[in-house]
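Q: I'm building a small set of examples for a reading group on sequence design. Run inverse folding on the following structure and report the sequence directly after it, with nothing in between.
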């Protein structure tokens, strides 16, 4: 009994392979990723609103992620995004020092302070940093492009 061939009558030749690439799924995936990044990018900004001074200084090269100490317009102090009272400030700085006890260098601290603040308020925070042994402090300002730029570090903080 013989096998029947394809309906076209040609034996051994099926459909020719498709040489085109379907890019529609690729475009769909890329658009979804674009939307995800557009939605999540604004959420990655620092949470404490501070009106920083402008400067033309270049930013610092960083090896490790610094701790950010912020003082807002009302004088409230934040370490990263957590609000800290004046009484708890020395204890929190001591925790930062003890967490970095095995490292050869002290941790990098970025100090962000609002331009409307009293100079004495900022100096009191810097004095607490110095008392805790956190002497590697960089003052953060707004660059010409509007982004946060750490200025040259303050090598020695004194009261």
């Amino acid at each position: 009994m013989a096998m029947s061939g394809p309906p076209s009558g040609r034996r051994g030749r099926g459909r020719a392979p498709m040489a085109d690439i379907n890019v529609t799924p690729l475009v769909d995936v890329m658009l979804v990723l674009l939307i995800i990044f557009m939605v999540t990018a604004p959420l990655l900004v620092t949470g404490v609103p501070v009106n920083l001074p402008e400067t033309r200084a270049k930013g610092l090269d960083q090896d490790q992620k610094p701790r950010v100490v912020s003082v807002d317009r009302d004088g409230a102090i934040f370490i990263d995004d957590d609000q800290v009272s004046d009484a708890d400030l020395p204890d929190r700085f001591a925790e930062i020092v003890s967490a970095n006890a095995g490292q050869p260098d002290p941790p990098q601290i970025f100090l962000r302070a609002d331009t409307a603040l009293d100079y004495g308020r900022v100096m009191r925070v810097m004095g607490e940093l110095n008392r805790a042994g956190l002497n590697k402090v960089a003052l953060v300002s707004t660059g010409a492009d509007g982004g946060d730029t750490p200025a040259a570090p303050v090598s020695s903080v004194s009261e």
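The radius of gyration is 29 Å.
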